[in-house]
């Protein structure tokens, strides 16, 4: 697969065209940001760690029947993915109260949510990724009713798969966000799954092992990501 010109540069990844219009190359950078880009830093090894971590998770999801855009990891920092028409909607599942849910509702952090909650957010940095609902998605054409149903079902399927995977590694999957797109008309999981886009706590101590370490200035961000990976059996060497 021939890597060609850069198509897009996001907060932590760059996207490159290839000689096949159906496929793109994702390049994972060391850039890290929070609070809609207001806090930025470069963390050594982060791009490599997230690329390898994401490849591991995507392979697990593919094996469980989840349609994903991931094809293969090309090297330490790059992966080959399907070229999709992305929907500007984030699907968020929360298993334990944390983050914006705590701030919005004034509830205590760490409450087990049964059943888990499902929320939608608009991908719009300028507006601070506002919370939206299905009616708004349909009205503004961000996704159809059928697509939303499929996205919700897939998001909950991912939850069942990954909750068990992380629990077996002594970890709690607190919450996470997923993004979807269309590949030849099929709703397909896109973007990435790494500690950048989810919350993971140690099951026994509830130590935070995700991007909250960066948001809250706790330090040891990449080391925490690597610890999660090691518990899952991921080799970062």
UniProtKB/TrEMBL annotation:
Keyword match Ligase: yes
EC category: ligase
Pfam families: SAICAR_synt
Pathway recorded for this protein: Purine metabolism; IMP biosynthesis via de novo pathway; 5-amino-1-(5-phospho-D-ribosyl)imidazole-4-carboxamide from 5-amino-1-(5-phospho-D-ribosyl)imidazole-4-carboxylate: step 1/2
Family statement drawn from the similarity comment of this UniProt entry: Belongs to the SAICAR synthetase family.
Gene that encodes the chain: purC
GO BP terms, alphabetized: 'de novo' IMP biosynthetic process; cobalamin biosynthetic process
Residues annotated as domain SAICAR synthetase/ADE2 N-terminal: 7-231
The organism's place on the tree of life at top rank: Bacteria
Coiled coil residues, start to end: none
Name this polypeptide is given: Phosphoribosylaminoimidazole-succinocarboxamide synthase
GO cellular component terms, A-Z: cytosol
GO molecular function, one term: ATP binding
EC number: 6.3.2.6
Catalytic activity: 5-amino-1-(5-phospho-D-ribosyl)imidazole-4-carboxylate + L-aspartate + ATP = (2S)-2-[5-amino-1-(5-phospho-beta-D-ribosyl)imidazole-4-carboxamido]succinate + ADP + phosphate + 2 H(+)
